[in-house]
Amino acid sequence: MDHPEVQDPAAPSAPAPPGTAPSPAPRLALEEPADGVEVLEPDGNDTGKDLAPYADTWREATGSRSGPDRSAKIRALFRLGRTQDRVRQEIPHMADRKPIESWLTDMDGVLIHEGVPIPGADAFIKRLRESGKPFLVLTNNSIYTPRDLHARLRRMGLEVPIESIWTSALATAKFLDDQRPNGSAYVIGEAGLTTALHDIGYVLTDHEPDYVVLGETRTYSFEAMTKAVRLINGGARFICTNPDETGPSTEGPLPATGAVAALITKATGKQPYFAGKPNPLMMRTGLNAIGAHSESSAMIGDRMDTDVLAGIEAGMQTFLVLTGLTLPEQVENFPYRPSKVVDSIADIVDLV
Fold first, then answer.
1. Catalytic residue among 106, 210, 244, 302
2. Is 96 one of the catalytic residues?
3. Annotation marks residue 106 as catalytic
4. CATH number at residue 325
5. For a Cys staple, 196 with which of 111, 169, 250, 294, CB 3.0–4.6 Å?
6. What count of other Cβ atoms lies within 10 Å of the Cβ of residue 156?
7. Catalytic residue (one of 50, 56, 85, 108)
8. Which of 239, 274, 309 is the C-terminal boundary of a domain?
9. Residues 264 and 282 occupy one common structural domain
10. pLDDT tens, residue by residue, 136-193
11. Starting from the edge strand earliest in sequence, which strands make up the sheet with 273-274, in order?
12. Confidence class of residue 247 from pLDDT cuts 50, 70 and 90?
């Protein structure tokens, strides 16, 4: 990887060509790197980090190629918080973004983990409610209704209003209501999905439905999947709430909607339309529901491939927390970057 040269602020700059104004020395960014990524300063206990990626950066910055204090110098460079792989120049356009007036946050991996609140989640929700800023807690899980999730979160000590919960089932229902009002659907899913479709006036039937709608369920019936295949082959349009291929459990990963959708696709040759993350449709319909605009909104998530991607494509600022599925060393593997990377939701409380 090529690294940009780092100019020593104390070193004299080369004279400008005759007739041209001298260029200002580049400013080293402590908060906003050139592609809009901020890696907040670690807690200082970084001795276990793989420092190899930073060695070239240090050599280019200092000309040092060896020495007993080399590792310490690399750690010091990392702690400057410029990025995890190189020093970058500040870009002014990030400072021109509007202040964040509304917040969207994923639920699992950001606020809770395996039924337990993540430290800082309660303070974040409390701060949001006190601020009066509109916000939504999002989940790709279509099993539960917003009322169910409200009760579950309350038992964990998180007071999230029912109207501040947005699920892939609600996004799917909104999409179908816009596409074909008062239509019909054959549904594989739980109460969260069937209730959302009932609420928009849909008829749930297995007789010539307009759509086959696949959502999350605790038990996928082979009989139901066979019927879905036959209805799709007969002309029904194929819709899925979300593309997640696996879901978490205390025993390990479970097959989820995306995996079952792949089975049906293989049997029918028909690709589904996914309404949930990373489709920015879920973000946009959520923002519309709370009267917010993407330019002044932020998305918080724990997954680069769903939360961050959907937020970017919806035109929002994005925060990646490291309490969920995406690991710090995986961030560089993606062709897009979040606006900021933080350890946990606790680091965002003061930004509300």
1. 106
2. no
3. yes
4. 3.40.50.1000
5. 169
6. 15
7. 108
8. 274
9. no
10. 999 999 999 999 999 999 999 999 999 999 999 999 999 999 999 999 999 999 999 9
11. 203-204, 184-188, 211-214, 237-240, 273-274
12. confident
